[in-house]
Amino acid sequence: MPVHIGCQGHPGAGSQLTFDDVLTGRRQVGWRRATRDAQSAGTQAPPAVAATFVAQWSLQVLVSAAIVASHLGKAPGVITDGATVSLHPRTFFPRVLCLAKEPGSNTARSQAWAAPAERAYREWAAQFLAGYRPEAAMSSKQRLGLVEDVWNAAAQPSANTGAGRQACCFIFALPGASECAGCPRRR
User: Fold this and answer.
1) What are phi and psi of 140, to 5 degrees?
2) Cβ burial 114-148 (10 Å sphere, 16+ → b, else e)
3) How far is CA 180 from CA 163, 172, 173, 185, in A?
């Protein structure tokens, strides 16, 4: 997910959620409804699909912020203070992490970014999951699987083929769709 300093006037910024809205799950009922309606091509998609997509998208926002903070050698709170996330106007996918202010550069950036980024991400993910209340039941295996899948995709994007995913995206529940090749339901 691209990162910009201040997104006011950014082309295609769309509607925005604060980082805190994402982290705490506030305002997500409307986000899930809009996602469910956008995915369904005229029919309403099952709530589990939107609940899973919004959870995954939220976790992607958290992992992006954690990686940015770690790469800059900053405390995660410095990055997320006042940050917002712009959503695509039609798909509602998070497009841009908008930082409220320039976090400043750190000339001694660590090459060992993964460990601090993972710690910050997992702390945020636990907080997010504790407050995430989708309209559909979501098992702890699904929730924790999403946390793992998002971290693995962010930390090793070239190695992530989707074959070893832990969580199901429920795309098969959309009209005319079927299970993904890497769906854990196939195991």
Assistant:
1) -65, -35
2) bebbbebbbebbeebbeebebeeebeeebbebbbb
3) 9, 7, 11, 9
Distance, in Å, from the CA atom of 43 to the CA atom of 145, rounded to the nearest integer, reads 28
User: Burial level of 96, CB count in 10 A (0-12/13-18/19+)?
Assistant: buried
**Closest listed residue to residue 27, CA positions, set 133, 130, 139:** 133
Q: In this predicted model, what pLDDT tens digit does every residue of 118-176 receive, in sequence order?
A: 999 999 999 999 888 887 888 888 999 999 998 988 887 666 566 678 888 787 777 77
The tokens for 104 are 């400043």
Which residues face 87 on adjacent strands?
94
Assess contact for 25 and 40: CB atoms under 8 A.
Answer: no
Residue 12 CA to residue 15 CA, distance in Å, equals 9
Predicted TM-score (pTM) of this structure: 0.75
